[in-house]
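Appendix C: a fully annotated inverse folding record. The material below is reproduced so that readers can follow the format used throughout the book. The structure is listed first as tokens, followed by the designed sequence.
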């Protein structure tokens, strides 16, 4: 097991993780989640409302569109 997999906060982080993708290997490992989504020009679930998160659209453009005045 690598040092990053030994995160002492994984159980605490998992309590607050809003990701609805069950079985995600990054659940509770915020640093891995951030790197994963950043490489794809996305944001992790915790940036979105519950309704937005359930769309699984993690795109930065989607995030901006949802927060722009209409």
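Designed amino acids, in order:
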């Amino acid at each position: 097991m690598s040092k990053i997999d030994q995160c002492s906060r994984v159980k605490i982080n998992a309590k607050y993780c809003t990701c609805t993708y069950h079985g995600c290997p990054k659940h509770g490992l915020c640093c891995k989640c951030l790197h994963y989504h950043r490489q794809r020009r996305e944001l992790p679930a915790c940036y979105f409302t519950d309704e937005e998160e359930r769309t699984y659209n993690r795109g930065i453009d989607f995030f901006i569109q949802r927060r722009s005045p209409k």
